[in-house]
Amino acid sequence: MDVFLTEEIGFCFGVRRALALVSDELKRGNHIYTLGDLIHNTGVVESLRKKGVIPISSLSQISKGTVIIRSHGASPSLIKEGRRKGLKILDATCPYVLRVQNIARYFSMKSYQVIIIGLATHPEVKAVIENVNKRRAYVVKNPQEATRIPFASKIGVVAQTTESIDNFEKIVKNLVQKGREIRIFNTICKVIRERQENTKRLAKKVEAMIVVGGHNSSNTYQLVKLCKLLKVKTYFVETRKDLQIRELKHLKKVGLVGGTSTPMRALEEIRDFLLSIN
Ligand code: SF4
Predict the structure, then answer these.
(1) How many whole angstroms separate alpha carbon 120 and alpha carbon 128?
(2) Ligand 1: centre distance to CA 253 (Å)
(3) Which of 1, 25, 79, 111 has its CA 20 to 30 A from that of 155?
(4) Residue 216: is its pLDDT beyond 90?
(5) Is residue 25 annotated as part of the catalytic site, yes or no?
(6) CATH topology of domain 13-93
(7) pLDDT at position 210, please?
(8) How far does residue 199's CA lie from ligand 1's centre (Å)?
(9) What kind of architecture, by CATH, is found in domain 96-188?
């Protein structure tokens, strides 16, 4: 069996930055909390928990210590509340996510109806919404939803950083009929765009794709969707243990890609496992 990895793989810059902040803080010996899981990868979150990095769901659960704002960002009011409580706040919001927040805030200040292309339940989108006038903001996840947006004289469009470029283009096409002045910022992260392109290229030359990442990871899920759209046999796994030899042993060419929160060691473990099959 030949195993091919996409050109650009492993943690993205934003995840590496968040992990580096945590590691520095651990060296200082402080109690560390993250609002939700630091990244969407169970293995990494569990190993951090063993080192004393505890995910919490609300600031009311703690009265002291350091809170890491994860790369998805958080609402300004939450950061303010943390500081008011005397907590040390370390902001690991990815600069690409901050850019989405800044553009959306600008649109809101200038009275644009703000459209965020993405998933309303995703923490990154929730944080963007907290930065704008909620009464004039919509989250749109597919082209059908875009047709239901009310007409407005000024519309400003941004995207969740992990959105798929194909879905973004289709939604934008439907949004252009919804306003007189429409400003569109393609805020999909460069790393995500490249990973999607590399995945498409690789999926076209193999018999099966193995996509490695957390089941709660939005960008990993987009890679799975992409592979399935290309009609290549696709396995969505978190670790090597999710793979069955009997399903794979007949394959000659397999492609391997991971989400931006998937550690290189998980990918290497799977690559070595695949190579050991024959
Ligand atoms: S995927 Fe892109 S936007 Fe998200 S954390 Fe990584 S670098 Fe930042």
Answers:
(1) 10
(2) 29
(3) 79
(4) no
(5) no
(6) Rossmann fold (3.40.50)
(7) 97
(8) 17
(9) 3-Layer(aba) Sandwich (3.40)
User: Does the pLDDT value for residue 185 go beyond 90?
Assistant: yes
Q: Would you say the CB of residue 13 lies under 6 angstroms from ligand 1? A: yes
Q: Write out the two tokens for 37.
A: 């899981």
Distance 150 CA to ligand 1 centre (A): 31
The predicted model gives 247-267 an average pLDDT of: 95
Inter-CA distances, 6 with 36, 48, 105, 175, 205, Å: 29, 27, 35, 33, 12
Ligand 1: atom nearest CA of 190 is 2
Ranges of CATH 3.40.1010.20 domains, the chain = 2-9+191-277, 96-188
* Percent of the chain predicted with pLDDT > 90: 90
pTM of the model: 0.88
Does ligand 1 lie within 6 Å of residue 223's CB atom?
A: no
Our CA angle for 47, 49, 54, nearest 5°, is 150
Residue with tokens 């004289």: 153
Active-site entry in 25, 46, 81, 124: 124
Summarize the confidence of residues 89-101 as an average pLDDT. Answer: 95
Contact between residue 184 and residue 163 where contact means Cβ atoms under 8 Å apart: no
Query: What are 232's two structure tokens?
Result: 């290549």
Task: Taking residues 242-257, report their average pLDDT.
Answer: 93
The model's confidence at residue 47, banded by pLDDT at 50, 70 and 90, is very high
Residues of the chain within CATH 3.40.50.11270 domain(s) are 13-93
**Structural domain 2-9+191-277, CATH architecture:** 3-Layer(aba) Sandwich (3.40)
User: Residue type for 90, please?
Assistant: L
